[in-house]
Design brief:
The chain is mainly α. It contains three helices and no strands. The longest helix is centred in the last third of the chain and has 45 residues.
Length: 116
């Protein structure tokens, strides 16, 4: 493997990838943001370079896959963020509409007729 390909050695790279993948999976479980799973996959895909370090096709294929995964994560984040923001605004508007129409006194309970 070309030493200037990564700034760190293979062992440190594998440890970094494992930590990153675990972090993004935990974040996904916590927040349910789908881009985090794509990011976890993007980190894992970077390890494929070690499968055949001298194969230029694999090298460029991994690079293209990384670019596609990162772009996909970016688009997914933007789309999901806008959906969440719209849902929060709608919820806030519904709450405000509920506050504006102040509840009136509830109707009186029916009384039993008295016999004369």
């Amino acid at each position: 493997m070309n030493t200037n390909l990564f700034a760190i050695g293979m062992q440190k790279h594998v440890i970094f990838v494992i930590c990153a993948v675990l972090f993004f999976i935990i974040q996904f479980v916590r927040t349910r943001r789908w881009y985090q799973l794509v990011m976890a996959a993007a980190f894992a895909v970077s390890l494929l370079i070690y499968a055949a370090p001298e194969n230029n096709t694999l090298f460029y294929g991994v690079g293209i896959a990384e670019a596609v995964l990162l772009l996909t994560a970016l688009v997914m984040n933007i789309v999901q963020s806008s959906r969440i923001n719209r849902a929060e605004k709608a919820k806030k508007a519904a709450e405000e509409a509920g506050k504006d129409s102040a509840p009136t006194d509830p109707p009186a309970a029916p009384t039993e007729p008295t016999e004369a």
